[in-house]
């Protein structure tokens, strides 16, 4: 056996050390967090209105957290004023102790439900993070269905009078015999672009999913008013999308306040279907890339009748008619904005819709079918995630009248006192919890891990 094989099979590996330290941190967290919660509960018992809150007994509960299970006891009271039983600790910390999942774990699970390819994958990923199967895929699905999603999140500051919109539709299969796929109309809105290091990001990005049978653009305009303080008399819209009738209807709804652009991804794909291999194909591609609408139409009309395929001829003729019926739909939108007196410095070409649709399609399509309720809940969760809006799980839904909650400063004082007491427990909890540190002082692993003592 060579030296490399000996080191690989007979010595500690990075993975073993990392897992062992992680388990030690989990155990320390459980002990300290339990002590912290019980200390806060003790302070609440001492400062409560004893005439109102009668202490009945102590009750044990177990909560799943990001660091594993935490089991602790909390006081159970009879509220004489409201004639009901309550846990003051639950009200004080704004969580529902009857649920077995911590708020942080809920948010993490819902985030994984959005980002992973399925609820099962989310459950598996969460188990890998925590170290054991913490919740099932069905539990995660129920969390998404029951989540509070505050999609109303107005932007803090407007940066101009132009709003950029990418519009597209996504067909999703619905569960139930005889139910057909349903198209969800999704619009991405932002105020422009900004550089973040080497990346280009959108300014004040939001997403809108149209619900109900009402007019799409009417509902969208109301959304703009709520989220962007949109002023129909001042603000301008640049809308990019394919030629679907519901999208092109924006020209009639917003009139002269909108510049509509046919999405170049869809136009290029359709042209490739008709003209790939045609002698004029390269020239047509160049005209499209330059967004020279007039010369592009000249090229397309000259190619009409030379394709040798009736279906392609009809497809090309329909595309030409679509472009001609919407003058300016190929032209660079920045030219239109300059005519409106807008400085276009720092503006980029449109075409974000397909990327957004790909993210959504990855999660909701591919041989999956949904209930309407499940699809609505998932869209809200995913859009909140994309827009940087927090998802909330179980909440109490009631306000405590405990004196300790009257001011934030009083509440902070109680928590700080509990933290100070817990700090005194830290040396005892963490002492001797890493077995490798108990090895001979002459070993390299002892010297390496001993350096953590001073942190």
From TrEMBL:
Pfam families: UPF0236 (PF06782). It comes from the Bacteria. Belongs to the UPF0236 family. This is ISLre2 family transposase. It comes from Bacillus smithii 7_3_47FAA.
